[in-house]
Amino acid sequence: MEVQDQEHSSSGQALTFTLEENEEIHVLHPQQIIAYQGPSSGRADRLMDVKGMYRKRKLIRADMSGPCRFTAALPPGYRIKTVRLEGKDDLLYDFRHLFYYSKGIEMQTRILSVKNMIVTRDLIKVRFSGSGSIGILTEGTVCEAALDPVEPLYVDAGSMIAYPENARLELTVYGNHLASQHMSYHWKMTGCGPVLFQAGRQNRRFERENREDGILKRFLREVLPFGGVFIK
Questions:
Q1: What are the angstrom distances between the C-alpha of 114 and each of 45, 50, 120, 124, 226?
Q2: Cα–Cα distance between 227 and 180 in angstroms, integer?
Q3: Share in percent of the chain as helix, strand, coil (round to 5)
Q4: pLDDT tens digit string along 33-78?
Q5: Is 178 helix (H, G, I), strand (E, B) or coil?
Q6: Nearest 5°: phi and psi at 155?
Q7: 99 with 67: CB under 8 angstroms?
Q8: Beta bridge partners of 127
Q9: Which of 26, 140, 222, 223 could be a cystine partner for 182, CB 3.0 to 4.6 Å?
């Protein structure tokens, strides 16, 4: 995979994939493919049969097989992080962050609790098994932190990308009275394994507040209970 025009990522990037004979990847956003070179039979789009996933919504993936070369466009502000799996991964991913996965990887789903559905606005999480690679669509830099069985890690709920299936999660805020009032909801997490989260969402919020918000609006967001959640 080759990233095109990386220095101008704010206006959108393009990814060029080169597949050799017997190589195959599954693209979960096939509408982003803008150029293709290879046999016509090298692309086969299929309806995804994923248990519990958006029953009324048609999800299509493109199975791309080599030899071929194709280019996919990324929306402005997004980038791809490649994660290599070796058969021992137990992370749960948000489906909307997934761009592709390679041959040798199998995808399973996990139904979320009602509380998690309300916060994440999603019905499921996805877990991968097998050996290969996956491409995660992210907003900004991807960060990684290790969970501890006792000491909790707090992660902004909207910035979460993936977490271990064994993790214990509680939706909360933290800090003193003023801090807890104006911050967004966070996941309080304990367990074992890595957590992946992205920085781009908070970067855009910072830019918006400093560019568009007046002094009064910023004051109300910080002073009113949960003003950071309800005052946009």
A1: 32, 19, 10, 10, 22
A2: 10
A3: 25, 45, 30
A4: 999 999 999 999 988 766 545 444 557 899 999 999 999 998 887 8
A5: helix
A6: -130, 130
A7: no
A8: 92, 108
A9: 222
As a residue count, the chain comes to 232
Task: State both tokens at 187.
Answer: 């996941």
Query: In terms of Cα–Cα distance, which of 89, 120, 122 is closest to 107?
Result: 89
How far apart are the C-alpha atoms of 102 and 129, rounded to whole Å? 11
> Could you tell me if 141 and 200 are in contact, meaning their C-beta atoms sit under 8 angstroms apart?
yes
pLDDT range class, residue 232, cuts 50, 70, 90: low
pLDDT at 117 (0 to 100) = 63
Residue 25 class from Cβ within 10 Å (0-12 exposed, 13-18 middle, 19+ buried)? buried
Tokens of 168: 């214990």
The answer for residues whose C-beta is within 8 angstroms of residue 200's C-beta and 6 or more apart is 77, 78, 138, 139, 140, 141
Contact 160, 197 (CB under 8 A): yes
DSSP H or E stretch at residue 4: strand 2-4
